[in-house]
Amino acid sequence: MDGTVDPRTTSVVADDSAGPTAVTLHASGEFARDNCDLLATAFSAALAAGRRAITLDLRDVTFIDASTIRTLWIGRAAARDAGGAMLIVNAAGQVAWVLDLTATQHDHPAPDGGSPAPQPRTV
Fold first, then answer.
1. Are 61 and 92 spatial neighbours (Cβ–Cβ below 8 Å)?
2. Are 21 and 54 within 8 A, CB to CB?
3. CATH of the domain at 39
4. Who's near 46: CB < 8 A, 6+ residues apart?
């Protein structure tokens, strides 16, 4: 992986059906320095629209790098500064490993593969 990804295979789609102050951002593909701005733009747009409860669903994300981690930390701080929060869910495999390695708070799937079991940690 050289940090270059195909932008046609990477996306962030917002689902605001949970209510006027919540949004779920469904990310898919590989995120690296060349395209992690897609996440930053989605976070900014959600906050500008008054969404304070942001859930980032990484179920379909297959790769993240250090620049993506930085983007997640900045997005989480922006949500907190706006009086909200960002929850990262459904990370698996290499993505979950990188989140753990960098002490980036996220849910952890249940051992039986069922619903995620939140694991609170301070960063």
1. no
2. no
3. 3.30.750.24
4. 14, 23, 25, 54
Q: Quick one: CA torsion of 100, 28, 9, 45, rounded to 10 degrees?
A: -110
Count of domains observed in the chain:
1
């960002």: which residue's tokens? 86
Are the C-beta atoms of 75 and 86 separated by less than 8 Å?
yes
Rounded to 5 degrees, what angle do the CA atoms 52, 107, 49 make?
15
In a domain, 122, yes or no: no
Residue 43, domain member (yes or no): yes
DSSP 7: G
Look at residue 11 in the predicted model and tell me its pLDDT: 93
Structural domain for 50, as ranges: 12-109
For residues 51 and 22, what is the distance between their CA atoms, to the nearest angstrom?
Answer: 5
pLDDT tens for each residue of 37-76:
999 999 999 999 999 999 999 999 999 999 999 999 999 9
Look up residue 110 and give its two tokens: 């249940």
Residue 116 lies in a domain: no
